[in-house]
Amino acid sequence: MKSWDAIIIGGGIIGLATGYYLTKKKKKVLVLEKNEIGSGSTSRCIGGIRQQFSTPCSIKLAMKSVELFETMEKEFGFSVEFKKSGYLFLAFTEEQKQKYLKAIEIQRSQGLEVHFIDRKEVKKLVPGIVDDELIGGAYSPQDGQAFPFYVIKGYAINIARLGEVRRRAKVTDIIVENGKVKGVVLEGGEKLFSEIVVNAAGPWAKDVGKMAGLDLPLEPERHEAFITRRWKMESIPMIVDYRKDGGYFQQRINGQIIGCYTPVPRVEGTRTDSTFEFLKEMSYRMARVIPELADAQILRQWAGSYTMTPDGNPIVDESEIEGFYIAGGMSGHGFMFGPGIGWALSNKIVNGEWGLDMSEFSIRREFQKAELLK
Ligand SMILES: Cc1cc2nc3c(=O)[nH]c(=O)nc-3n(C[C@H](O)[C@H](O)[C@H](O)COP(=O)(O)OP(=O)(O)OC[C@H]3O[C@@H](n4cnc5c(N)ncnc54)[C@H](O)[C@@H]3O)c2cc1C
Q: Collapsing DSSP states into helix, strand and coil, what is residue 26?
């Protein structure tokens, strides 16, 4: 009978980060991925990494992630294209400015370098930006980006040194006995045993929860994105435009512009079809902020899932089934939170302590306090 220190369901950033930090603690880990690694949400994200959140819990988690992103090149032996290229949240109204100022106070109290910059400074930072209605923006030069494909590659290679990352391995059932998890069953019937099982199945985490009899408040929704050909190098930080018809975009370190927006109304489910409407809208929304970008050539578009909880914050916790952990509901923050969550989960599993305040992500919370900056 083959058994493991931990079995992780899902080969996205969350499952692989958890596997990697467990492996670093000398645990024998098996990651099961039904398709290819990164094939869920992770390879479809736009690689943004920010620490500008509105609560100490989220800020600290994101700061821990940044600390870990910074060490990846050394640990993996290759670059993950991590760069502190900044995040700029645009303010168009006094109300928005006040909201950012309040958040900045909390962010600074946690040690984050962040400022409210006026219109002139925004213009200096992002040449060519339209400043008619702009008041200024919340800016942290400590935020940035990395390339998801390299991050998960680094994690997967290193897990495989002590454990295994098995592709095309779909979990169809969770083995639970007397309120404790004992292992999983794969499509085809193979049983694999461990007293620790982590549900990191991203948009399918609700389905995996059901296998153990849990009804998790997780709902996937479709988000589309596009990337342009290389744009003349200017280093545009992640621009966050929270207007109703705004969006998010940044320049990758190779010069490409990558971006997306939150669709209204929501498009529920795990569909990944792309629309012409997105292409048109996103082009318009980006060029409205920086008109020169109307000349950028779009290279590719795609879609993926955000997995939402009722309050927009992740669930990272041990469930009511002993040894069965849930790490899901990452919304649009799973890539940036991923390393921190994996590190904290590995601490909890091995030492019984998270190593960070993770109370905001408890499965037992009321789901009423929404993150303001999302
Ligand atoms: C357009 C877009 C832009 C985004 N931009 C950003 C961004 O800039 N920054 C950021 O932080 N986040 C961003 N996100 C969100 C981010 O992509 C997700 O939060 C993150 O990737 C979630 O990671 P995950 O590991 O939870 O899920 P996933 O990457 O989906 O991994 C889950 C894996 O589990 C596997 N799986 C599911 N069921 C089973 C099963 N039964 N058996 C075995 N395997 C199974 C799936 O195949 C999948 O590979 C974006 C998302 C989208 C769609």
A: coil
Indicate the pLDDT class of residue 234, thresholds 50, 70 and 90: confident
339 and 351 in a single domain? The answer is yes
CA–chain centroid gap for 208, Å, is 19
Beta carbon of 340 within 6 Å of any ligand 1 atom: no
Average pLDDT over the chain reads 96
pLDDT at 1: 61
Task: Tell me: do 181 and 245 sit in the same domain.
Answer: no
Query: Is the CB–ligand 1 distance for residue 204 below 6 Å?
Result: yes
pLDDT digits (tens, 9 = 90+) for 27-64: 999 999 999 999 999 999 999 999 999 999 999 999 99
- Quick check: is 234 in a domain? yes
| Nearest CA among 169, 170, 177, 168 for reference residue 213 | 177
Q: Indicate which atom in ligand 1 lies nearest the CA of residue 238.
A: 8
CA–centroid distance, 127 to ligand 1, in Å, is 33
Q: Per the structure, how many domains does the chain have?
A: 2
Nearest to 341 by CA among 354, 351, 331: 354
Q: Cα–Cα distance between 73 and 77 in angstroms, integer?
A: 5
Residue 265: cis peptide before it, omega within 30 degrees of 0: yes
Answer yes or no: do 235 and 284 share one domain: yes
Same-domain pairing of 330 and 317: yes
Could you give the CA distance from residue 288 to residue 238 in angstroms, rounded to a whole number? 15
pTM of the model: 0.97
CATH of the domain at 95: 3.30.9.10
Q: Given the structure tokens 């929704």, which residue do they identify?
A: 221
Q: Is the CB of 203 under 6 A from ligand 1?
A: yes
With a 6 Å cutoff on the Cβ, whether 7 touches ligand 1 is no
